[in-house]
Amino acid sequence: MVIDDEQALLLLVKNILEPEGYKVSLATDGQSGLALMAKEQPDLILLDIKMPGLDGFQVLDIIRQRSNIPVIMLTGVVDRNTLSKFLNIGADDYITKPFNPDVLVARIKAKLRRAWR
Fold first, then answer.
1. Model-level pTM?
2. Which of 48, 70, 71, 92 has its CA 20 to 30 A from that of 117?
3. Cis before residue 19, ω within 30 degrees of 0?
4. What value does the CA radius of gyration of the chain take, rounded to a whole number of Å?
5. Residue (of 32, 33, 28) closest to 11 by Cα position
6. Average pLDDT across the chain, whole number
7. What letter would DSSP give residue 21?
8. Quick one: DSSP state of residue 96?
9. Cα–Cα distance, 64 to 32 (Å, whole number)
10. Smallest Cα–Cα separation from 74: which of 53, 58, 56?
11. pLDDT tens digits, residue range 39-69?
């Protein structure tokens, strides 16, 4: 599942992951992402930081209250303090935008491999 307010990024990630065999659900804001998460029970979430309404910090906090699902932050923020804060509050990893599609797929595979053990 991908939660990001940038429509172009959502479609890009979907176009990268679907040929790899992943079913990709998309949400354009935190609130709809949380509702979709409850409905679909995804195996992993890619989550943006800066979104209208609930931001990535708030969404991650709610996800951690409900689930141990792997969460990879997809972010344009490269500030080490912000990135370390995400890891400290429960993110499993982060990928900075723009990203290499091969790195995105590799990190997703690594997180899912560990989650399915």
1. 0.94
2. 48
3. no
4. 13
5. 28
6. 93
7. T
8. E
9. 16
10. 56
11. 999 999 999 988 999 999 999 999 999 999 9
Q: Does domain 2-98 have CATH number 3.40.50.2300?
A: yes
Residue with tokens 């399915």: 116
The alpha carbon of 35 is separated from its chain's Cα centroid by a whole number of angstroms, namely 15
The arrangement of strands across the sheet holding 71-75 comes to 26-27, 2-3, 45-48, 71-75, 93-96
Reported as a pLDDT band with limits 50, 70 and 90, residue 117 is low
- Tokens standing for residue 22: 């992943």
CA distance 17 to 23: 8
Query: Which sign does the torsion angle of CA 33, 34, 36, 37 carry?
Result: positive
- Tokens representing 8 are 């172009």
> Pick from 117, 104, 110, 114: which is nearest to 16 by CA?
104
Tokens of 14: 């979907």
Question: First CA to last CA across the chain, in angstroms?
Answer: 20
Whole-number Å distance between alpha carbons of 30 and 62: 10
